[in-house]
Amino acid sequence: MLELIDVRKTFNPRTVNEKVALDGVNLRLEDGDFVTVIGGNGAGKSTMLNAIAGVWPIDSGSIRIDGADITRLSEHRRAYLLGRVFQDPMNGTAATMQIEENLALAARRGQRRTLKIGITRQERAAYRDKLAALGLGLEDRMTAKVGLLSGGQRQALTLLMATLRKPKLLLLDEHTAALDPRTAAKVLELSKQIVEENRLMTLMVTHNMRDAIQYGNRLIMMNEGRVILDIAGEEKKRLTVEMLMDAFAKASGEAFANDRILLG
After folding, report:
1. Given the DSSP bridges, would you call strands 60-65 and 218-223 parallel, antiparallel or unpaired?
2. pLDDT category of residue 263 using cuts at 50, 70 and 90
3. Pairing relation of β-strands 169-173 and 202-205?
4. How distant is the alpha carbon of residue 221 from its chain centre?
5. Which of 20, 71, 199, 202 could form a disulfide with 170 if both were Cys (CB 3.0 to 4.6 A apart)?
6. Is 118 part of any domain?
């Protein structure tokens, strides 16, 4: 379970550049929830994910996972609870290391380091099976440097690494935005498959309304640092882009006007 309770974050306070990024966000996710997050530029979507991940401290409020208060934990101390895939395929992997070496690092997240052999035969076989499930042929390139992979292959590998040790919460931060449409669709389907097979509690930020509607069991929309829409269950299944835009207008009191999302 994830709980955000009255979470607030302001950048550059008391200056001409002051920006209220999170304005009293309250959100609760249950185990197995797959929640898509949508909103215009500056709505607070990525800021919320960064607050959960501990990239920066929040000003007030609290963040809890499974009842444990992680609000004041540093980023590296809460990392074992989380899996994360970023917008840039270059993040989340070590380009100069082999595919199997990257997977070994992910498999040891949160564990104490020892002087034992780096990758055992059993581990290598398990990595091969996991890679084969992606359907990208990476199981035959386990000793290739990650920097040689395409953006889609690298993002799929990052997704696998983020979920290799089942996290309490998976954060997907516009993780298909930098990919071409065909590759993005493949990575989204892989995301859905991995989330459903492992019943992972997931927050997926997207700029694409259709993807936000199609994926997950729940959709939230943010505006000016607040959650203004929270749609789940049968209501979400019946959603269309037009209905979502109308709901935004009613909740915010203004028409939705964000070219990136509308064109997406």
Report:
1. unpaired
2. very low
3. parallel
4. 15
5. 202
6. no
Domain with 235 in it: 2-96+149-263
Residues written for the chain? 264
* This prediction's pTM: 0.90
SS (H, E, C) the chain: CEEEEEEEEEECCCCCCCEEEEEEEEEEECCCCEEEEEECCCCCHHHHHHHHHCCCCCCEEEEEECCEECCCCCHHHHHHHEEEECCCCCCCCCCCCEHHHHHHHHHCCCCCCCCCCCCCHHHHHHHHHHHHHHCCCHHHCCCCEHHHCCHHHHHHHHHHHHHHCCCCEEEEECCCCCCCHHHHHHHHHHHHHHHHHHCCCEEEECCCHHHHHHCCCEEEEEECCEEEEEEEHHHHHCCCHHHHHHHHHHHHCCCCCCHHHHHC
Q: Which of 80, 65, 73, 46 is nearest to 162 (CA)?
A: 80
* The two structure tokens encoding residue 256: 């939705």
Cross-sheet strand order for the sheet of 34-39: 82-85, 169-173, 202-205, 34-39, 218-223, 226-232
Number of structural domains found in the chain: 1
Q: Do 224 and 205 meet the contact criterion of CB atoms below 8 Å apart?
A: no
Q: pLDDT by residue (tens digit) across 227-237?
A: 999 999 999 99
Query: Residue 238's CB: how many other CB atoms inside 10 A?
Result: 10
Q: Could you tell me if residue 133 is inside a domain? A: no
Q: Which residue has the tokens 């797959």?
A: 34
d(Cα 238, Cα 20) in Å, to the nearest integer?
A: 33
CB 138 within 8 A of CB 99: yes
> Pick from 5, 52, 40: which is nearest to 25 by CA?
5
CA distance 204 to 226: 17
Read off the CATH number of the domain in which 177 is found.
3.40.50.300
Over range 93-118, report the average pLDDT.
81
